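Training component of the fellowship. As part of building independent skills, the fellow (R.M.) carried out the full modelling exercise for a liganded target. The chosen ligand was 6-O-phosphono-alpha-D-glucopyranose. The inputs are recorded below so that the supervisory panel can assess the work.
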Amino acid sequence: MCGIVGVAGGIGERLGSALKKCLERLEYRGYDSAGVAVTGAGGIIVRKGRGKIHEVEARFNFTALDGLSGIGHTRWATHGKPSDENAHPHVDCTGEVAVAHNGIIANYRELKEQLTARGHRFISDTDTEVIAHLFEDYVKAGLPALVALRETIRRLKGSYAIALLYSREPDRVFFARNVSPLVVGVGEGFNFLASDIPAFLGYTNRVITLHDGEYGYITPSSVYVEKNGEPVNVEGRVRVVNWSPEAASREGYPHFMLKEIHEQPKALRETWAGLDMGYVSKLSRIIAEARRVFITASGTSYHAGLVLDHLLAGLAGLDTHVFNSSEYRKYLRLVREGDLLVAVSQSGETIDTLMAARVFRERGARVLAVSNVVDSTIPRESDYQLYTSAGPEISVAATKTFTAQLMILTALAANAALYNGGIGKETYSLIMSELEQAPDLVNATMINVEARVRHIADKVKVKASAYYLSRGIGLPIAMEGALKMKEVAYVHAEAYPAGESKHGPIALVDQGFPVIFTVTDDDYLDPLEGNAMEMAARGAYTIGILPSKHYARLGKVFTEVIQTPDASPYLLTIIQSIPLQLLAYYTAVLRGYDPDKPRNLAKTVTVE
Ligand code: G6P
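Fellow's submitted model of the complex:
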């Protein structure tokens, strides 16, 4: 939450304009306020305010600003409501220091009191402002800027990625990182800092990921990093990422969400191609031999984790425990050596998932991270890493990374089940060959269902609530469908095991109430048909998402049917996600909302 950016050097355009472009690519991290600061011969100039980046730009014309270096911020409020005063960057008493920050300074109250007692004047309600004043104190005491930064962060408790301008050293941007993500973009004659790689992809694809405890500065020609007062050599850490700049632009689509939904065939193809099957098989042995397998994640990744749980228990007969990562404390006494934690996180930065991974490792468990961002914090701190290759995902609502997660988790589970004899070679080959065909089948699904889904969205757009029901492995997919609907269309949507619908939810169902069924497992056809009939008998508007093999039997049971290609349940998870994503997208658009900027949400949640 919150995106920060910094740039030092000449990039062939005004700094204000480059900062705006970078911030727009981080807007998924928060968009309730924005601001930039630049520094040059005339000192620091700050332009900031409440609102989305383009609104703040319209008020303050910050793209006209230029200088030797600059910082920018797009905010998701934690401390202090969204307002002009609370927007970043924040300055010290002298106006010689400006700070953009992502994270939470846990001890800011105490620091603020101390600083106020020393005569500092605070303007905002934010935790961030203490950083500018602490730094001011240290440079006033005569410390060189880098030492002042080191002393400043020594006083901070909590999480932070910081970009800081100091007008007496106008050619550089100082930085520090603890927990919150921060990367350097290495250029020719310029260097960038950002919360995430897409911010500067239009300028460079050479990246250094900063680690916790590191701080330093970028100048137009150098990147200087220290930890605990000792220089850190980062030359060997420069990576070239193969994400194209177009990957971080909408390319003609009205929204990133729609673009990313449509990118799924490509994301799946590249994820499949990027899988090292030797490594997958090694990991699957580690899973099959673990004492117990814990699975953790948040949001959409949690639903992918539920599918893994279903497959590892159902196919491989393993002792699995799946939990929302924010609830990890429940397991503190339970975990021990021999256990394995699978931590699923698209961004690799979600704070709760990171915390869960850390405490599991501290207690002797091994951790396998599944992420879309190479070298992000969770994979870096884990024993094993598996990556999806879905390309950068900008839309707050995860879509292509979800199906890519399903693909690799299903491959992993199939390998584990083959290894421990849960399934034979034939079932294994069927699952693997289906996964290989996933890109084509997803493509076919997209072409076949989009118009129909749009028509259904036109009906759903006026509804206040919806249920998503399923049984078996289709349930996590129904849960993901309901989450998408809530996130972007603001329709109250709940998923239940269809069997549970009679234990409460059905009380709400009346004429026209939308109930969406995902039908994946053949074993559950009879009870699911019964549940659909029960809903229909109460006047519900039922929508069945079915593989075509069940059309003859169930086609007439639902008010609306969305037919998908035939496949086993292991692939239907991926295929049936497509209409559910499209339904949420079109419902949001038809209700007049911007699905790329769902209110109150951020793509990467870096505060507990
Ligand atoms: C936020 C995002 C979701 C995402 C979740 C977990 O809530 O809005 O789209 O699924 O975080 O993120 P992760 O990066 O850990 O998968």
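The panel noted the following from the submitted structure. Residues 453 and 579 are 7 Å apart (CA to CA). The mean pLDDT is 95.
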